[in-house]
């Protein structure tokens, strides 16, 4: 199968929302009047971002999900995406499953594939995603203010727990493992929540490299700090809620520095608490207030006595050790 | 050097034309009222699209140039781009040179880096480029009509000639080799010409996989055919013009199926001939009429007697043999 047949067979679908899709030198997008175009791109490389044994259907889902998660963090409504694919060989069964996972998530979000590139090479997937957001209303990392409450969506650390199970550093009951594996391999981007938080949240980021590391970006860009109680960690990890007992320090590590969560961390003025809860309810997304933004720079992790304690959470650096 | 330091040191530059650049979950673009956004993406993999020994400055240039060439083929004015980079290791000298080549071309076209992703992995570069084009005025592959003239910009086949010299299948005088190598490693996208042809050309494509193969896309999508005289081949190859003598069939192969040319092939009504020449002169881009669009489907290569002759030019398929 050649390059053009591969594209025609697995990826060329008519566009409805965008003026021009696959098949010309460029695709054409037309944001509605008054809208800005939000753009994000993520590169996934085998062995670094996914295991070679992963179900291609889940991989197709995840490759788009991690990008949609960036749109969610900006409060942007998905519109279109491009896909670049380097493949070691053309495997029709693999491609069919990959495309199924990809388009299933894309269709759920009304996000159309408008272009791309395919070539032979070590397995790598690069998706660039486009969303619309009313001009001036995008949620930025720089908007957090002292006094704001700090929130997260969903639960944290379970994806990393699955990765540790794959690596053999923890042993999990089958049910816990399957739930955690689902979080690792098939994250659900919080697009509806992100859009519902426009005009309510003061800042937002998606948690991909671990809460502590990603939160640090928000704090730095906003010129503020935050305090978060470590004691909340067990309740923020779904596996603990489901009854799994782990060493407390391990739970804290998973929750604050696990990575691959694709939840939103966001801030909002205390006066917006009801509006945040209403947005969460409207979009059927659990949210939890986990701390408070303060004027003094830095992230303070508080012990049981409410005192700041030292922890070296690194977050996930794609050039550092995992 | 970690991921964030790498980005800050080599790639994070303030944006002027776009509302938001690097450093948040998304970049923000705002096409002017009445403009559509043209989007294209190209993935370059070491060993397939470039040699491991290539000067990183030239590689940075080429990675963006091949994308700008797609904008040129649509008649779109460059606006912004994203860069995804998989690197086997962090080599500051290599990155500095790569960034220099990249930004030098980007600045020449007013095209801003607004986002990206970096990770460790086998060397691969994915750029997605964004341009503006007035709604409804993009040059498409589907607009060629019987009676139109078929044009190309610049010269064809020299990039492939350099590749063959690297492979040892031809031996070239030093001067010819250097000129051909420049075409292979540092192509100049025909952006000014593409934009000048809006409202004049009926269809356009950029020649990346070889003239015969890329022209076939235009003919198929336009529902037409074309006739081109093979005898023009020597004059379309810069090396021949410079005095190099090659086997005639080899010259035809280079010109019609060389690949990596990044010239424009475009069609225009015969009545637009003066307008085409004026656009070419205004943008200091040589153009040559090489044939005519006809109602009968298919590309007819004409021999010296003006009779169609059979040639099996494959064009460049990224999953076929090179």
From TrEMBL, chains A, B:
UniProt domain PurM-like C-terminal: residue ranges: 145-300
Protein keywords: ATP-binding, Kinase, Magnesium, Metal-binding, Nucleotide-binding, Thiamine biosynthesis, Transferase
Record pathway: Cofactor biosynthesis; thiamine diphosphate biosynthesis; thiamine diphosphate from thiamine phosphate: step 1/1
Top-rank EC class of the record's enzyme: transferase
Annotated ATP binding sites: 116-117, 141, 208
UniProt keyword Metal-binding, yes or no: yes
EC number: 2.7.4.16
Keyword field contains Kinase: yes
Binding site residues for Mg(2+) 5: 209
Binding site for Mg(2+) 1: 41-42, 117
GO MF annotations in UniProt: thiamine-phosphate kinase activity
Residues that coordinate or bind Mg(2+) 4: 25, 40, 70
Binding positions (substrate): 49, 260, 316
HAMAP family membership: TMP_kinase
UniProt family annotation: Belongs to the thiamine-monophosphate kinase family.
PANTHER family: THIAMINE-MONOPHOSPHATE KINASE
Function: Catalyzes the ATP-dependent phosphorylation of thiamine-monophosphate (TMP) to form thiamine-pyrophosphate (TPP), the active form of vitamin B1.
Name of the protein: Thiamine-monophosphate kinase
Source species: Ramlibacter alkalitolerans
């Amino acid at each position: 199968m050649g390059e053009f047949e591969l594209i025609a067979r697995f990826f060329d679908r008519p566009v409805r929302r965008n003026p021009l899709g696959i098949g010309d030198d460029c695709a054409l997008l037309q944001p509605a009047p008054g809208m800005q175009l939000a753009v994000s791109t993520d590169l996934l490389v085998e062995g670094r971002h996914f295991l070679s044994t992963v179900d291609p259907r889940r991989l197709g889902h995840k490759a788009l999900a991690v990008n949609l998660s960036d749109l969610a963090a900006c409060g942007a409504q998905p519109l279109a995406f491009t896909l670049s694919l380097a493949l070691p060989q053309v495997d029709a069964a693999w491609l069919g499953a990959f495309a199924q996972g990809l388009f299933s998530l894309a269709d759920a979000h009304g996000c159309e594939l408008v272009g791309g590139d395919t070539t032979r090479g070590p397995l790598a997937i690069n998706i660039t995603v486009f969303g619309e957001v009313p001009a001036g209303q995008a949620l930025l990392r720089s908007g957090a203010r002292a006094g704001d409450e700090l929130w997260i969506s969903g639960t944290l650390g379970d994806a990393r727990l699955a990765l540790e199970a794959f690596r053999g550093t923890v042993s999990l009951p089958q049910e816990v493992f399957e739930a955690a594996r689902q979080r690792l391999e098939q994250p659900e981007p919080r697009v509806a929540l992100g859009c519902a938080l426009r005009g309510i949240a003061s800042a937002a980021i998606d948690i991909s490299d671990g809460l502590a590391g990603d939160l640090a970006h928000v704090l730095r860009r906003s010129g503020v700090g935050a305090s978060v109680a470590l004691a909340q960690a067990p309740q923020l990890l779904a596996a603990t809620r489901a009854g799994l007992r782990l060493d407390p320090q391990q739970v804290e590590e998973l929750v604050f520095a696990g990575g691959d969560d694709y939840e939103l961390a966001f801030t909002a003025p205390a006066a917006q608490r009801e509006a945040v809860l209403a947005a969460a309810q409207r979009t059927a997304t659990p949210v939890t207030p986990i701390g408070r933004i303060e004027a003094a720079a830095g992230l303070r992790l508080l012990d049981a006595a409410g005192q700041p304690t030292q922890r070296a959470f690194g977050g996930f650096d794609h050039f550092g050790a995992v």
